[in-house]
Amino acid sequence: MRWLLLLPCLSSLYAQRWTLQYFYDEPRAELTIADLAFPTSQRGVAVGWTQERGRKAKPVSLTTADGGQHWTLGPLPDIPRSLFFLNQSTGWMVTEDAIWFSEDGKAWRKICDQSKPNKKLKPTPPGGLIMRVWFLDSQHGYAAGYQKTVLQTSDGGRTWRPLPEAAKPAGDQAFTAYSQISFDGPLGLIVGVAIPPRNDLGPFPSWMEPERATKQRERPTQTLLLQTHDRGASWSALNAPLFGLITALQMAGEDALDVFSYGPSAPWPSEVYRLDLTAGSSKLVFREKDRKVTDIALFPGRKAFLAAVEPTGSLNTAPIPGKVKILTSSDLMEWKEMPVDYRAEATTLVLAGPDAHHLWAGTDTGMILRLVE
After folding, report:
1. Which one of 25, 31, 106, 288 has the lowest number of neighbouring Cβ atoms within 10 Å?
2. Is 284 a domain residue?
3. What is the percentage of the chain residues whose pLDDT exceeds 70?
4. Domain assignment of residue 142, yes or no
């Protein structure tokens, strides 16, 4: 009788799995998904570009209005970098040259031009600096990017002004970037890194010279942190020498997770830390030598997912797709791998979804996976 009582619990534990829902399968072209957003369980947007060998990349979007059962591929006006959706109808897209606004995820209108001055759109951020945006409501938001750039807007992104605290942490502006933004309620974090130039890397990428790359010593970088406890009314800034780059950040209530990614000579490709925002401390919660974590999904109740890739070859930085691995936890300490479609491969992937039961993953190899139960 005891075993019979346990059967429902065991079946629910292994019921969730990741299935391949979309695959761009063209004989002479490849699709790279740069970012993915699912503001509701039904409406989703993926942005990226298609490219044929020897030809210029074509920016594209994928949209769905039925939970990913059907996808529509369409053109975009510029190469995308990132997406942010406030709700199912209000979204912003950062591209190489501009910030765009959409009311349906399909039609995009340029509201801020980064490439050249424009009387109707100024003041504009310097050319191509912005990497991502985050909006607290339809009017108030933040933008972060290269050259120590953090901007704020109070008119939906049409005009921007610098956040003074962003310049306070140490680091040469030319080698410093803010790359991640996350808010939950009154708490907000903006993180970045200052990387001094190195002259010992050689003329070729590390994956072309793996023996040399594995002998290079990891050097600490300056991790930059901006923090607010009052929805951006005031900010505090600090920096600390740490190894690696923060490549993903998520907050949910008092919990926060971030991913540190490392170079080819590090013993681990990445590490995941849990942040204690009250005490100002962090704790390692995940690292494995054969799991390179590229994104996080974190929800209230300490339900979390890690999107990872199994590195191929001797270097964790080799640009060769590896098997997609997705892990989950209910306490941010113990992680269990979930079944993933055997065809799913990538060098990086992103997660998106409104809750822990409706979640999708987009890969840089043109695939979209869905969490099913």
Report:
1. 25
2. yes
3. 84
4. no
Residues 264, 197 contacting (CB under 8 angstroms): no
- In degrees and rounded to multiples of 5, residue 286 shows phi and psi of -160, 135
Chain centre to alpha carbon of residue 243: 19
In a domain, 91, yes or no: no
Residue 21, SS3 per DSSP: strand
* Cβ–Cβ under 8 Å, residues 350 and 47: no
- Cα 23 from Cα 344, distance rounded (Å): 9
Instruction: Tell the burial category of 200 from Cβ atoms under 10 Å away from its Cβ (0-12, 13-18, 19+).
Output: exposed
CA distance 282 to 270: 15
* 89: helix, strand or coil: coil
Helix ranges, the chain (H) = 2-13, 210-215
Cβ proximity of 207 and 213 under 8 Å: yes
- How many structural domains does the chain have? 1
Preceding amide of 210 cis, omega within 30: no
Amino acid at 232: G
**Main-chain phi, psi angles of 215, to 5 degrees:** -90, -10
Backbone angles phi, psi at 164, to 5 degrees: -60, -35
Residue 305 maps to which CATH number?
Answer: 2.120.10.30
170 φ, ψ (degrees, to nearest 5): -65, 155
Structural domain of residue 373, as residue ranges?
16-25+60-75+244-373
* Beta strand pairing call for 130-135 and 108-113: unpaired
Instruction: Give the mean pLDDT of the chain.
Output: 87
pLDDT digits (tens, 9 = 90+) for 276-295: 877 777 899 999 999 999 99
Contact (Cβ atoms closer than 8 angstroms) between residue 280 and residue 233? no
Residues in contact with 6: Cβ distance below 8 Å, sequence separation at least 6, in sequence order: none
- Out of 29-33, 43-47, 254-258, 368-372, pick the least confident: 254-258
Angle at 324 between CA 80 and CA 272, to 5 degrees: 80
- Phi, psi (degrees; rounded to nearest 5) at 10: -65, -40
316 Ramachandran zone, left/alpha/beta (phi>0; psi -120 to 50): alpha
Q: Where do we find the tokens 């109808």?
A: 89
What are the structure tokens assigned to 185, written together? 């309620």
